[in-house]
Amino acid sequence: MDIESLRYFTVYCKHGNITRAAEELYMTQQGLSRAIRHMGQELGAPLTERRGSKSVLTPFGEEFRQYAESMLLQYNGLLNRISDLTRTVSGEVRIGFALGTKAFLGLELFDDFEERYPSIEIMKFEHEDQLVEEQVLIGELDIGITVHSVDTDLYNSTLLKMGDYFLLCHEKHPLAKRKTIRFADLKDQPIAALTGKTKGGQRLVKHCEEAGFTPNLVERTKEMMVIWEFCLDNRGVAVTSSGRILKNKLGDGDLPLVAVPFDESENYHFKVYMITKNGFPMSYPTQLVQEYLLDAFDE
Question: What's the pLDDT at 299?
Answer without folding.
Answer: 62
